[in-house]
Structure of GntR family transcriptional regulator:
Amino acid sequence: MADWNNQSPIYLQLAEHLSQALLDGQPQEGQAMPSVRLLAAEYGLNPLTVNRALQAMVEGGLLESRRGLGMFVLPQASERLRAADRARFLSQEWPLLRAKLQRLGISASDLDWHAKESA
């Protein structure tokens, strides 16, 4: 079950969570999304909230609704998500991170891109 916050509506938070799962290949492009009922049970949410999240993903060009069959991941969905996340990172997060690195005196040579995360 996900942790919900008060920063944005829960349906948008769920749509973001499901979008991140798409980036991880779950489910893969062309495959069906889990049913509204299954997602509602998994996340402890009202089916209407889940349906609204899936509809937001349809409007975002990530899913398509197939009458009587459910929601399916569109081709290129992960590519669109990655491009949008990259653009958002570069325009919003990177400037803040770069400023913090500069304040702390951390240079590119101090960063190890291949370091494994500690568990």
User: Anything to note?
Assistant: The first helix runs from residue 10 to 23. The beta strands are 63-66, 70-73.
